[in-house]
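Annex B, item 7. Sequence and structure tokens for protein A, then protein B.
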Amino acid sequence: MSNDALDPAEASAEYGLPDPSDVLALDSLLAPDELALRQRIRDFTDQQIRPDIADWYEQGVFPMHLPAQLGELGVLGMHLEGYGCPGRSAVEYGLAAMELEAGDSGIRTFVSVQGSLAMSAIHKWGSEDQKQEWLPRMAAGEVIGCFALTEPTAGSDPSSMTTAARRDGTGEDAGWVLDGAKRWIGLASVADVMVVWARTDDGVRGFLVPAGTEGVTATPIGRKLSMRASIQCDVTFDGVRLGPEALLPGARGLSGPFSCLNEARYGIAWGAMGAARDSYEAALRYSMERLQFGKPLSGYQLTQEKLVNMLVEVQKGTMLALHLGRLKDSGRLRPEQISLAKLNNVREAITVAREARTILGGNGITLDYSPLRHAANLESVRTYEGTDEVHTLILGQHITGLPAFR
């Protein structure tokens, strides 16, 4: 095989042939403006993420210059309307999530924590003053937010949270005192504002806690084998005093945080397919170039079977994500549908990434190639915003009518 041979996608583009990696012609289901947006995000990923992601991952650092660039790109709070938010469709947000996670799950996770969790909470449940104060700057990437729900002993079961807020004083001017602990809180150590969920006498409520508030400590979690180009923290609240303006007035009970989690889970269904597609494409390119026993790896039946199995799952998962996006844009998307897509797409993406690594052989364990990095990251994606077990139980309750959580 000559060194200047085109890869299949490039050959298809040059000669006007169908993309061999889009067997189902899924691109034909996208409108021109959706394709244009996808290309813009793909170009950003190629130029701003791929060149440095291996170093960020190896060093365990999140690139703090990216938030402003992502704000300029228009992907922060992308699906939200007003207050400086882009107001794009659910499908467009999904396409952006897919392209960013093709770069790295940690970068897509930042966009998800900022937009689908923190900004969504303020947009859905905040007062007008809170929205005006925070959302425009968050959309621009000037201010970073985080979403503090999970606790050291309350992950899959947030109803057992122990973080509590009690009234501080009486009357309309009464504030709050917040005590407790949270764990695995993305971006907490660099956040300008935390959305914190806590028990009160009026059920679970949300609070906005600005950075620098006395009594708040955020400690990054180290020694991670996954999501290394990202930040997750332990957070403690020790007698934190908040004014009445800190309360998110519209959220009462767990329906508040759950509504935000569903926004994040929707984006994950798309994002996981970005990691899977990138893993497949890395393996395909390698197999076309790597010679073994006198011919390319791609010319062997076992390799072709692996490539086909990967492609089938990427195509199916992308079609599922697109279907969800159309349902969401038409106001018909249901929580159990999100659970099905999150469960399937992340599970299959891990399988694709691991299979892609086998085609790369020993080279696949280095950061010169993306599949094993994607596989490691996806272990976190598989756990957060609902484990496989939680989404299985959600679907089980839906199809049987019987809750089996306890």
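Protein B:
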Amino acid sequence: MATSTRSSGMPANKAPRGSLINDPAARAIFFQILVLGGVLLLGWYLVSNVMENLARQNIATGFSFLDREASFAIGESMIAYSPANSYSQALLVGFLNTIKVAVLGIILATVLGTIIGIARLSSNFLVAKLASAYVEVIRNIPVLLQLFFWYAVIGESLPGPREALNPLPGVFLSNRGMRVPALGDDPIWVWVGVAFLVAVVAVWFVARWARKRQEATGQQFHTVLASIGILVALPLLAWLLGGAPTALDIPALQGFNFRGGTSVSPEFAALLLGLVVYTASFIAEIVRSGIRSVNWGQTEAASALGLHRGTVLRLVVLPQALRIIVPPTTSQYLNLTKNSSLAVAIGYPDLVSVANTTLNQTGQAIEAVSIMMAVYLTISLGISLFMNWYNKRIALVER
């Protein structure tokens, strides 16, 4: 009588190991390596072909041109610049101008878009319809056409410097831009700015402490009043310790233009206004849909507790809606930043404008375009990283 393998205590024969080609994991790694090798080979071929063609036509390559004299002026600059500076300095000016437009545009578009989005949900018929008309009209007109429109309005509707409008003392509006008084040349203003930054950090720590205190004890702390006090007190203290200077640089008409003070050029104003108005129309729809996504029972429960409508929106609805609002809003921030490259069409010296001038003078198109691509990629990745961090921070934590 034959005995089974189990009854005799003999181990069962193991199934023979299959070859690597039948292993799904091994096949996946093999094909990934194959595709990566193909991509690298294609890249090597394209680069070597381009370099060979450039060498055949005696076209210089490399980034050594960045140290040469730029020899062209830039209308607006946040740092000291003259035509005698290098191309690298000129590109830095264009980069800072792009950052200025992007940061201000994101802040203003967020504020305007939030207001319009909430207005679309208003129980007031006129307010809701006006907000809806704004969204439907603005977002269906190409942004480039809107930039042309605002540039024409600002540049052609305002008078020349000699007939400039003077709505407030020291403020002048003309087709050369807006001139406003500036702070006098005193080193104390630097320390006032440092004090303000310190105050912002202090406000963040106070808000964090207040939140932990409320979670532990249930007692609320008036963070708004405390924050305003800190933001005002520290810069004011630095100003007083520095002698409390009050001198202002008042603009005055000299010849055919104003001198003194600080100015906002028509190009910058048109670019900023066009980008803010256009992007805000999309953010408004994102805010509206985010608020709509919050269960109506949340609003009813908060109203039953006697909370004011504005308080319900600020403390109950918006914190929950942010989970849906933040991801698509990130895309709008990226679009605004990239759309700022259209500034070249109205003469604002952003990165693209300066890089195009550099390209035309040096003939090194590949390097100039590579710099633009690298800068916009870095800015976009920075915005994405920050917004992803913020999105994780406001995410609901399950208990």
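Comment on protein B: The longest strand covers residues 165-168.
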